[in-house]
Amino acid sequence: MGNYFFYYFVLFSSLIPVLFIGIQRRINTNQTRLRSLFFLFILNRFLTDLGVVLFEKLINNTFPVFHFSIIIQFILILEIFYSIHRYTIPKAIFLIVSLVFFTLDLTVTSSIIKNNHISTMYSYIVISGFGIRYLFKFTGDNFQKIILSSISIYSIAFTFLLFFEELFFTSKELNNYLLNFMALLSLMLNIIFSYALCLKPKN
Predict the structure, then answer these.
(1) DSSP-based three-state secondary structure for 60
(2) CA 123, CA 141: separation in Å to the nearest integer?
(3) What is the value of pTM for the model shown?
(4) Cα gap 72→203, rounded to integer Å
(5) Do 81 and 148 form a contact (C-beta atoms < 8 A)?
(6) In 10 A of CB 138, how many CB atoms?
(7) Interaxial angle between packed helices 142-163 and 63-84, expressed in degrees from 0 to 180 and rounded to the nearest 10
């Protein structure tokens, strides 16, 4: 029962930064492109968590939610990185490849009711690559540093999980520890995002 409550508590912790969007809009009237993208990213996280609960109750399958939320999240994070820095590789290349893997996971390598492993792996590897590059430079104002470093660290941790998920899931005890760790990481991420939303942008 405790684990069940903890699961839903963490799941709906994504509502916290959504609520802070209203506070942020009162504090900061000047909305930059980065902040607008960040709002959409937060809303996508919350709608994903909400969709997971609904699909679990309705059809006992949450994979349809992840098929679409992963590619939306990838596009938004990519836009966030490209809105701050210039990169030699055109953004369109990453987007086209992500659409190809998204389509393959829906039709060939998997289906809408099965794990979208390829598109998920691709998304997090690319995001982790951008994240590692950013962590070495660590530039920008406080708002940029907080959201980009948080997204980067979370993505790197999740990519590590994806690479070794078969090893982790062979042990029930290890699996439980890992899931609790990722849940706590998600909770911390939502709290950090809420704090970032309250920061005033530099003039």
Answers:
(1) coil
(2) 26
(3) 0.85
(4) 30
(5) yes
(6) 11
(7) 140
